[in-house]
Specification:
Subcellular location: Cytoplasm
Radius of gyration: 19 Å
Number of helices: 10
Helix content: 25-40%
CATH architecture of the largest domain: 3-Layer(aba) Sandwich
Largest sheet: 6 strands, parallel
Protein name: Pantothenate synthetase
Distance between the termini: 31 Å
Number of strands: 9
CATH superfamily of the largest domain: HUPs
Strand order of the largest sheet: 1-4-3-2-5-6
Structural class: alpha/beta
Order of helices and strands: EHEHEHHEHHEHEHHHEEE
EC number: 6.3.2.1
Shape: globular
Organism: Tenuibacillus multivorans
Strand content: 15-25%
Subunit structure: Homodimer.
Number of domains: 2
CATH topology of the largest domain: Rossmann fold
């Protein structure tokens, strides 16, 4: 495994790989890897000749400098995990390497961001598509892997690739969960003991919404939201940020017959904000194998 710190070197490696007709799988991360990231790496390893993991805490994705500064980092630990999982190259640039000067041209995301996490994080997804555009240009991956826990991010990246004709396959990987159903996240370490115990009910609330859909042919979006809300309010003490039911990947509130859909929630605890979702087909079954 080789760690690459500069864009110039990463491009040189990419050119050699392309000249030898190697497929490249990219797993973009902000580090502090957990089992969910390892699942992305495993999927990439199974489907590509070469696996590249980018580790970059992107400052453009943070609305507050305090959040950027407090984001967990442990590159030595991450290196050991990546080596164990068969990663070939780690692209580990500094912020100065990625953004050597103030950006002259910015990217705007006009749809799919006025709901869910996007409604309370102005500018976040502009930061996401900016750094991913740079990574796609620098590394030119055959495929890029994204966890469905961040389903809104996946939906935005899907639009980015289609709108700008990037030659990369955007590959969704099902959410990896703890034994009790809690979605794995770097932020789970910030939960207090009692918060961690009750957080398992977030996923159960989503399944409650799924059951309601499967049991009612004439369900409405608001009814699903109310069912999930009622379950959460009974079982958790955390503050509900949002609950929604939308078409997927369009993330529209105007659901029509035959649409795939997402039920998503976000909950605030004292030192952590947890998000989770399930993605269903029109019949209420899981859309992606392994969910």
């Amino acid at each position: 495994m080789k760690t690459v710190r500069t864009i110039e070197e990463m491009r040189s490696i990419k050119n050699d790989l392309k000249n030898n007709h190697n497929s490249i799988g990219l797993v973009p991360t902000m580090g502090f890897l957990h089992e969910g990231h390892r699942q992305l790496i495993q999927s990439s390893r199974q489907e590509n000749d070469v696996v590249v993991v980018s580790v970059f805490v992107n400052p453009l994705q943070f609305n507050q400098s305090s959040d950027l500064e407090s984001y967990p980092r442990d590159f030595e630990r991450d290196e050991k995990i990546m080596e164990q999982d068969g990663v070939d190259y780690v692209f580990y640039p500094t912020a100065l390497e990625m953004y050597p000067r103030a950006m002259t041209i910015s990217m705007s995301v006009d749809r799919r961001t006025d709901v869910l996490c996007g409604q309370s994080r102005p500018g976040h997804f502009e930061g996401v598509v900016t750094v991913l555009s740079k990574l796609f240009h620098i590394i030119a991956p055959t495929s890029a892997y994204f966890g469905l826990k961040d389903a809104q991010q996946f939906a935005v990246v899907d639009a980015l690739v289609h709108d700008f004709n990037f030659e990369v396959n955007v590959t969704p990987v099902p959410t990896v969960r703890e034994e009790d159903g809690l979605a794995m996240s770097s932020r789970n370490v910030n939960l207090e003991t009692d918060e961690r115990e009750e957080a398992k009910h977030i996923y159960q609330a989503l399944l409650h919404g799924q059951t309601f859909i499967k049991q009612h042919d004439d369900w409405s979006r608001q009814e699903v939201i109310n069912e999930v809300k009622g379950y959460l309010e009974f079982h958790i003490t955390g503050e509900i940020d949002y609950i929604d039911c939308l078409s997927f990947p369009e993330l529209s509130k105007d659901l029509t017959v035959g649409d795939d859909l997402i039920i998503a929630v976000a909950v605030y605890y004292k030192k952590a904000r947890l998000i989770d979702n399930i993605i269903l087909n029109a019949q209420g079954e899981f859309k992606y194998k392994g969910e």
